[in-house]
Design brief:
- It is built from 11 helices and 7 strands.
- It is of the alpha/beta class.
């Protein structure tokens, strides 16, 4: 799903390919819209080709969708083998909010991808959209926690909460405190962010970042008591993975880096709304150049 854990978070931690499709690309029936459009489901896979083939088989319209992503001009599987031409790609390694530092291995992953994309003939420049990250995070959390409360309360009028993880219960408690006015304001804030990114894509075809702010976390590092702290492990870990959820853009995590300890680190490419085809074109190009499938047996043991 587009929530934690999402496709590209799982992919980055496991040395896999993970695509989060555009808002409206995947059918939401019969369960209904996920978090006012924050999440859309897909798969993780060992290859770009498998990811594209599954999206070909699963995307499509249904009666009464709240959103409608533009239909692709060709199959996504065909896009994998289609040269993308010379693209203009923006990248950055320094992130918004709380002065959170990106882990050196994640910086190295992005810098390696920059070199590779440049060698493949693309124009890569260090640039990023400008916005109030802290405000966007607050708006995102209001939608996310409201969704958690709605989901849990929808199970039964009086759900037995004993089977839920404490972090889920924390989200539910916060979500129940969000007013209707706050929820609508948060939704408008995120829609405005989507428009900002749309304008940014008039100058750049793709955006390149690390998928996560740190390599995979060790067991016990994820602590619920620091979930919302600006300097918490979670903030640094999820520093950039939620932005495409908020804007509705498609994003793909690719296994282009490995730490000295043998841990996978993904890099994330984000495209303009509806341009999964372009992501698959570039991802296919990178996969042919790197051949990361040779790394995956070692990761998977």
């Amino acid at each position: 799903s587009g929530f934690l854990p999402d496709m590209y978070t799982i992919a980055s931690c496991c040395g896999l390919v993970g695509m989060k499709p555009s808002r409206g690309r995947m059918p939401q029936a019969p369960a209904g819209e996920m978090g006012l459009g924050l999440g859309y489901e897909h798969v993780v896979s060992r290859s770009v080709r498998d990811s594209a083939a599954l999206l070909d088989l699963t995307h499509g319209d249904y009666d009464g969708p709240p959103y409608g992503a533009p239909s692709p001009e060709t199959s996504y599987l065909q896009a994998v083998d289609t040269p993308p031409g010379k693209l203009r790609i923006a990248y950055w390694t320094r992130y918004w909010g709380y002065d959170a530092e990106t882990h050196p291995e994640c910086v190295a992953a992005v810098e390696g991808a920059v070199s590779l994309l440049s060698e493949l003939g693309h124009e890569v420049a260090e640039e990023r959209p400008r916005f109030d990250y802290a405000q966007i995070q607050r708006s995102f959390m209001k939608l996310w926690t409201s969704m958690a409360a709605h989901t849990v309360d929808g199970i039964t009028p009086n759900p037995d909460l004993r089977g839920f993880e404490q972090q889920t219960l924390d989200l539910v408690e916060l979500g129940r405190k969000v007013s209707a006015v706050e929820l609508m304001s948060a939704r408008e804030e995120l829609l405005g962010l989507g428009r900002l990114y749309g304008e940014f894509h008039q100058s750049f075809d793709l955006m390149l970042t690390t998928t996560l702010g740190t390599p995979p976390l060790k067991i016990g590092e994820w602590r619920r008591d620091t979930l919302y702290a600006g300097d918490g492990v979670q903030t640094k870990f999820l520093l950039c993975s939620g932005l495409a959820n908020a804007t509705g853009q498609p994003a793909i995590s690719l296994p282009l880096h490995m730490t000295a300890e043998g841990l996978p680190v993904g890099v994330m490419l984000t495209a303009a709304y509806g341009r999964e085809d372009l992501l698959y074109q570039v991802a296919g190009q990178l996969e042919r150049a790197v051949g990361w499938s040779a790394l995956q047996p070692a990761i998977w043991g």
